[in-house]
Amino acid sequence: MSTPSASIDAEPYTFELKPDQCALLIIDMQRDFLEPGGFGEMLGNDVSQLRRTIEPNKALLAAWRGAGLQVLHTREGHRPDLTDLPPAKKVRGKSEKTIGDPGPMGRILVRGEPGHDIIAELYPLPEEPVIDKPGKGAFFATDLHAILQNKGITQLVVTGVTTEVCVNTTVREANDRGYECLVPEDCVGSYFPEFQEMGLKMIKAQGGIFGWVTSSPAIVAAIA
Ligand code: C5J
Questions:
Q1: N or C terminus of the chain: which is more exposed, having fewer CB within 10 Å?
Q2: For 56-76, what is each residue's pLDDT tens digit?
Q3: Is 187 annotated in the active site?
């Protein structure tokens, strides 16, 4: 028997959540982006701007798991031999240390290194797919679309970091592939407050050109 749909207060208008067809997609909640002493902080970023998303994500994840709904996680990173790292991405930013170099939590954004892994607070359960992505969007060079199609997923609740980079890129990719995306604003974060605001505005502008924006308590209440 299918679970009835639930109406969620959202912008630009009500989102009709179909629980059986909706997955929670948590983007790049990785130690190197969020933890003090990680790569993000090493670059001079204020990680507290991202860390404020941990508790809302924990509550949403607990409610989502409690309702028996589909969860997926992503991690941005590269093969240890860096064969999937475009030279242009390697040199971008002209930093002293770049992807693949030794960083504070192992080699920077390399799969299998401590900093590449997901923070303990949101650690995936064994049955939750983890999508390792080499780019910003979760659909580029991954099997995410195939997994979602095989599971009959047509809607995504997208959370994680960072709002204007990997979250926005993924929402745009998902929208072009026909998914309806709902973004809880308290569960996505940017190092830059102005990008947080604009990143969310871009999603919901023009009648929801890429998707809908809401808050996590509204989703939790709807699936309770
Ligand atoms: C993500 C980044 N995850 N900002 N990566 O947004 O490079």
A1: N
A2: 999 999 999 999 999 999 999
A3: no
